[in-house]
């Protein structure tokens, strides 16, 4: 029972991060029908920018409170990623809106390689230790079950962000504009909606979520690297497909479910395969789920709330 609860906690932590990243994928797809494969690399830029900011602050103000230092690092990483997301939409994707679907897909993959290469030039090939500004001393709420303050903050912050995003989309004027653009951007434009601004705003929000997820991911694992965004991005895409890409609730559900499946799989894979595989093979669960969903329920668990565009 202790192992079961421990894996549940671990799954909720990593699933919360996957959900935040998946929201960026699903918002862009819902409005443009575009899979932005460079989204995971925005996460990487956010983590490395936060790392660079913290290293600078440690040099100029070594006595600064860890909470203030992490907050400042986030406040620097988020605008950097927002700017990056805006430039990606403006320079790379806007001209391809009416192009065949293969063109923006190839462009997104190219943007991913470009961001990784630039990050490698700026930060090098080596793995960087991400400062543990918040205590990582495990707490033991139940005998044999451990959770760190960092993990508690990740779960709580992710829940708050997801609730806030849901309210933004359903209760605000810009949210109505986003839903109208997702339904039919040509009709929305005729009704007075500035679709260019709405699409740019969608990329900006997705990039901000990726920045926060990047700092969470690096804080949880204690490392940052120029290639760190690829695998979380791929798994978040799987989560978006699992929940129903284009559906915000589906992205949240898919992220949490994928995190739980991956965590339970890592905990029990050795028993299930009679010692043939161990926890280092936990990544296979994401791709098994992706394959099964694409074969048996391509629209995902909650269906796709995106109308077909002529």
TrEMBL record:
Keyword Nucleotide-binding: no
Alphabetical keyword list: Amino-acid transport, Cell inner membrane, Cell membrane, Membrane, Transmembrane, Transmembrane helix, Transport
A molecular function GO annotation: L-phenylalanine transmembrane transporter activity
Cellular compartments per GO CC: plasma membrane
Entry membrane topology: Multi-pass membrane protein
Location, primary (coarse class): membrane
Pfam families to which the protein is assigned, alphabetical: BPD_transp_2
GO biological process annotation, one example: D-alanine transmembrane transport
Bilayer-crossing regions: 12-35, 42-61, 67-87, 99-124, 144-169, 196-217, 237-260, 272-296
Compartments where found: Cell membrane
Protein family membership: Belongs to the binding-protein-dependent transport system permease family. LivHM subfamily.
PANTHER family documented for this protein: BRANCHED-CHAIN AMINO ACID TRANSPORT SYSTEM PERMEASE PROTEIN LIVH (PTHR11795), HIGH-AFFINITY BRANCHED-CHAIN AMINO ACID TRANSPORT SYSTEM PERMEASE PROTEIN LIVH (PTHR11795:SF371)
Name the UniProt record assigns to this protein: ABC transporter permease
């Amino acid at each position: 029972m202790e192992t079961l609860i421990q894996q549940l906690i671990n799954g909720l932590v990593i699933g919360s991060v996957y959900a935040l990243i998946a929201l960026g994928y699903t918002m862009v797809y819902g409005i443009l029908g575009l899979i932005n494969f460079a989204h995971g690399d925005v996460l990487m830029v956010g983590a490395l920018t936060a790392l660079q900011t913290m290293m600078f602050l440690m040099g100029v103000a070594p006595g600064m409170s860890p909470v203030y230092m992490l907050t400042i690092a986030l406040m620097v990483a988020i605008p950097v990623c927002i700017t990056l997301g805006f430039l990606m939409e403006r320079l790379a994707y806007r001209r391809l809106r009416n192009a065949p679907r293969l063109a923006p897909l190839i462009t997104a993959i190219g943007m991913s390689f470009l961001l990784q290469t630039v990050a490698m030039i700026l930060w090098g090939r080596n793995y960087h230790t991400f400062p543990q500004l918040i205590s990582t001393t495990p707490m033991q709420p139940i005998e044999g079950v451990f959770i760190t303050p960092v993990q508690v903050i990740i779960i709580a912050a992710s829940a708050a962000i997801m609730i806030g995003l849901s309210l933004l989309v359903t209760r605000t004027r810009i949210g109505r504009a986003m839903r109208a653009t997702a339904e039919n951007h040509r009709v929305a434009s005729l009704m007075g909606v500035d679709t260019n601004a709405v699409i740019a705003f969608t990329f900006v929000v997705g990039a901000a979520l990726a920045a926060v997820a990047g700092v969470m991911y690096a804080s949880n694992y204690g490392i940052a690297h120029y290639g760190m965004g690829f695998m979380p991005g791929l798994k978040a895409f799987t989560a978006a497909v699992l929940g129903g890409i284009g559906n915000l609730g589906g992205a949240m559900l898919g992220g949490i479910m994928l995190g739980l499946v991956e965590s339970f799989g890592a905990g029990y894979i050795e028993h299930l395969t009679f010692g043939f595989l161990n926890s280092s093979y936990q990544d296979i669960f994401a791709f098994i789920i992706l394959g099964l969903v694409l074969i048996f329920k391509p629209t995902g668990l909650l269906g796709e709330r995106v109308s077909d565009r002529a």
